[in-house]
Known about the structure:
The complex is a heterodimer.
Chain A: H1 6-20, E1 25-37, E2 40-48, E3 55-63, H2 65-75, H3 78-82, E4 88-98, E5 102-110, H4 112-132, E6 150-155, H5 160-170, E7 179-184, H6 192-205, E8 212-216, H7 231-239, E9 244-247, H8 256-260, E10 263-265, H9 268-362, H10 364-369, E11 374-377, E12 380-381, E13 393-398, E14 401-406
Parallel strand pairs in A: 6-7, 6-8, 8-9, 9-10
Antiparallel strand pairs in A: 1-2, 1-4, 2-3, 4-5, 11-12, 11-13, 13-14
Helix pairs in contact in A: 5-9, 6-7
Chain B: H1 4-20, H2 25-60
Helix pairs in contact in B: 1-2
Amino acid sequence: MQTYSLFELNEYIRRILALNLPDAVWVTCEIAQFNESRGNYFLELVEKSEEDDTIIARTEAAIWGPNYRQLRKKVGKKLVEILQEGLEVKVQVRVSFHERYGLKMVIEDVDPTYTLGKLALKRQQTIERLEQEGKIHLNAQLALPIVLQRIAVLSSPTAAGLQDFENQVRFNPYHYHFQLDLFPTAMQGDRVSEEMRTQLRKITKREHLYDAVVIIRGGGARLDLQAFNDYDLCVALANCPLPILTGIGHDIDETVADIVAYQSLKTPTAVAEYLVQHNALFEGELIQLGQQMNQIAQLELQQSTGELTKYQQILELQSNSLLQHLEAEIGHLANLLSPLSRIKVEQEQLSLDQLSQVLKLLDLDGTLARGYSLSIKEGKIVQSKTELSPEDQIEIRFKDGSVNSKIL
Amino acid sequence: MKTYEEALSEIKEIVSALQEGSISIDQLSEEVGKASELIQYCRTKLRKTSSELEKMFEDQE
């Protein structure tokens, strides 16, 4: 049996490979890792089993700097978006073997339509699944509070749109107060779905503290939006008990998250405007109600004032007439008092006069003065001769004294 | 302090007692004096009420 030196073996392998794979070949695979180093790009390519997602093939590949720049010119901006971890790609690779460095796969070309098609298909499947499960309009059926003030913000602290959103909300022309609580989450890359779902669970636990959830993402590559087409994330959004407003910041494409949300808006700024306008609408209604109330009150006041004036007049009239009546009554009584009391005095005078006359008549001293005398027996005036018998002792009273005498 | 009603009914009592002749001459001046005072009191009260009312209606007009 022949023995090779290692170099000989490797040289043999290189020749076999070069012979059998002389040209570059198109390969479909998924990018598991993507790194840049000194202008060159190094990728880990995998293929997963359709049944259980286990890796059934794996290899490393590279794109050399000059080639990358060529591709960038040819494919455009999309190249950056396509060469992302987690995405399925169709790449043209040249397979080579080097005696010292081993197997090397060099990517020479990329087919962007393949990745885009795959993504569109996956997005469509997600939408259909959510529709079947009745989740697609679940969040949109929630009742939006009349006033939106306490906002849970799902965003990355470094997201370009977050600052715009916060400024727009804080310095709104109506000076409405908003409470913006940031729940930080990745907004790009493969951690978006998981981090955002974790934060959504946190928000749901404090559901009573918030009026709505907003998702703010500013700028970024178009394919970065893939995270927002993720089935698990969209289910979590659909099940969120608070209305979700999205400002994912895209012009053309609508993500599945946008479809699931209560309201999707083009930009973070548009979300801010939506919040402010929503509250302004409520304030407008309040102002209108206030005006109506004022009108009604004015009318009521006028009517009441009229009524009051009427009653006031009646009151004035009635009280004046009552006073007049009372004054007349008092006057009448006063008028009675003086003649009545005078009559009384006169009556008394009169009876007094009569009495005095009677008294005069009866006056004993007067009678005696006129020369009459009085016979008194045992202290009593003798009025008849029958009262007297012989030998009776009597007193005869004159005006100037009395004498004792005896009846014969 | 007597109310107007009390004062008035007392005046009326004295007057009707006078009319019936049931007041003795001893009480006469005392009773009539009392009635006069009460009449004065009632008149003052009426005048006061009247001017108060006038003021109230003035304020409202």
